[in-house]
Amino acid sequence: MWILVFFDLPTETKRDKQAYALFRKNLQRDGFTMFQFSIYVRHCASMENAQVHIKRVKSFLPKYGHVGVLCITDKQFGAIELFYGKKPVEPNAPGQQLELF
């Protein structure tokens, strides 16, 4: 089983930013890794184990914002298609040639 945690948390005030950072830190402490900026994933051996981690996520939910939790099987997770866009690369400046005497 895979647990995916999706979240959209406010970051307008200092308190919001602290709550956001604490939520992310708690996810990482519980074994979640970043899949994308606001999506964290964790592998679990069984549905029972997944329920333990979901309960932990619920225990440290921030006061404001939106958080979603989704459980999917290994097969479903393996069927995810990922696409990466190319980042434009500027050509290298020509190097200077040194003269040795």
Q: What global shape is seen?
A: extended
- Span of the ends, CA to CA: 67 Å
CATH C-level class: Alpha Beta
* Structural Rg: 21 Å
* Main pleated sheet: 4 strands, antiparallel
Structural class: alpha+beta
* CATH topology value: Alpha-Beta Plaits
Unreliable stretches, pLDDT < 50, 5 or more residues?
A: none
Count structural domains.
Answer: 1
Please provide the count of β strands.
4
Q: Largest sheet, order of strands side by side?
A: 2-3-1-4
Mean pLDDT: 91
Indicate the proportion of strand residues: 15-25%
Count of DSSP helices?
Answer: 3
GO molecular function: hydrolase activity; metal ion binding; RNA endonuclease activity
Enzyme class: hydrolase
Subunit structure: Homodimer, forms a heterotetramer with a Cas1 homodimer.
Cofactor: Mg(2+)
Task: Explain briefly what this protein structure is.
This protein is of the alpha+beta class and 101 residues long.
Attribute tags:
single chain, 101 residues, alpha+beta, Alpha-Beta Plaits, four-stranded antiparallel beta sheet, 3 helices, extended
